[in-house]
Amino acid sequence: MKKLRAVKFIYLALYRKYRPMTFRDVFSQEHITKTLQNQIKNNQTVHAYLFTGSRGTGKTTCARIFAKALNCLAPEDGNPCLKCEACVLIETGAQDISEIDAASNNGVDDVRVLREETRYAPVSLKYRVYIIDEVHMLSAGAWAALLKTLEEPPAHVVFILATTENHKVPATILSRCQRFEFKRVNVKDCAAALIKAAETESVKITGDAAELIARLSDGGMRDALSLLETCISHAEPGTALPKEITGHIVREAAGVAGSEHVFGISEAILVGNAASALKIINTLHGQSKDMGRLLGELIRHYRNLMLLKLMPGETDLISWLPEEADDYRRLTEKYELGHIMKCLDTLEEYYERISRSRDKGLTAELCLIALCAAVPQITAAPVRQPEKPHVPVKQPEPPPMPEFPPEPPPPELPPPMTVVGLAEQAPVAVSSQWSEVLRELPAFLAGMLEDAGADLQGEAVELTGNELIAGIVANPDNKAKIAEAVLKVTGKRTEVRFVTADPPDSGSSSSEEIEQPPDKINQFKNLLKQKGIEVRER
């Protein structure tokens, strides 16, 4: 007779072992669980739901709980009872509850098969529930094939779509679903759950270690439980389990730098000491620390410095351990806000680059060199040199100027010549209506006649002025335009003519006579000839 071998129980990962079974066990999602419970109690469920949020926040877990509650024969306050035939059947694997991975079943044919199945009634439950995970991975053709079924499914079908990238879901799908946004699990809830799970596993964990795990998991409960499981396995040599999980064990298991290394790097960046920062990087790289996670830790570190600089009294938003508070306050006093912002910009740039880099260590080194090079330069005040006593320098006297004979006085110029009859004319009389006549004329003609004298009182329009005005009036076209303008202003049709003004009495018999002193002119001519200047008479 063959001897039977003992069968060992299969080990179950902690995130599966401690997966919530009811809405009461879900962390940090009260705004969603309360709504779903009320829908179950009031029998007001809809045909399509969309669960969105980051990884590990409970989307698939809530979808499974909701599928149980929908089919539960005796729900308790909107939660599944976990005892009835339907709950037990779903737990063991019911045919009517289908979980589909859209990442691998994203084609049109997959959606057609699903659409054909929805026509049939459930086999053993009230509802046929389809949980489609990572639904944003569906192809364009698959979305089009699913659209009509999602809009008007049979009464016994409920769709629950889950995605981490809701912006990739078409708007036509979003409008047909009831949408729920899952929040990240906060640090306190996550740390409390980790402590409870560690106690169940008969392992001690410090509060600081639990908080560090919660912070490193970035709001994902699945990541936190996975890291806790790694820390539990990180036992001392010769022991099955660690005596106590501390922050040092968490950093060793997660591959992150300790706080002393992060503060050391920030101190080196503050003074621009690139050599010291590179030595720390080399040490961490030799310990196989994740360089990408190191840059993430530095981003969190400088974020804490920024918040502490802006809000010294508000520490709720700052993610730190209690023993780090004094070091943060001391370092914040040394940093300027502008320098912190520049460091954050540089870290964000290299954090994006390091994921695509082949040599992550080199990228981290380049990042630290750039951070140290961005230290704000302090301009020193110029050193004042002692003043030297002022010694007057005796300037040499200029040589005496040579003596020249005095120049003769300039000759007296004759008085200006006056032409009688041309420089002076009799004043012209301007009629009060002449300005109105000018406004009726073309602009060019009005400008030429602006200085003309005009008499509009008689039977003819008499204009006086210089030879230019006489020439303008002599033109028949201009005469006609002036006569037409006078007619518009006075209402009379008159003749236009130019009248020569009488020159004033100059006491001379001829208007062209020029008074010239002959003696003075002859003297001036003789003086110019003496100077060697040729004088020509015209």
Explain what this protein looks like in three dimensions.
Helix 8 (187-200) crosses helix 9 (207-216) and helix 14 (291-310) packs across helix 15 (325-334). Helices cover 46% and strands 7% of the residues. The model is unreliable at 378-383, 416-430 and 506-517 (pLDDT under 50). With 538 residues, the chain is an alpha/beta fold. The protein is built from 22 helices and eight strands. A five-stranded parallel beta sheet has the order 2-3-4-1-5, with helices on one face. It has a three-stranded mixed beta sheet with strand order 6-7-8, covered by helices on one side.
Q: What composes the largest sheet?
A: 5 strands, parallel
CA gyration radius, whole angstroms: 52 Å
Helix content percent band: 40-55%
Shape: elongated
Total number of helices: 22
Give the low-confidence spans. Answer: 378-383, 416-430, 506-517
Q: Strand sequence of the main sheet, in spatial order?
A: 2-3-4-1-5
The number of strands is 8
Distance between the termini: 160 Å
Kindly report the average pLDDT value. 80
Secondary-structure-based class equals alpha/beta
SSE topology string: HHEHHEHEHEHEHHHHHHHHHHHHEEHHEH
Strand content: 5-15%
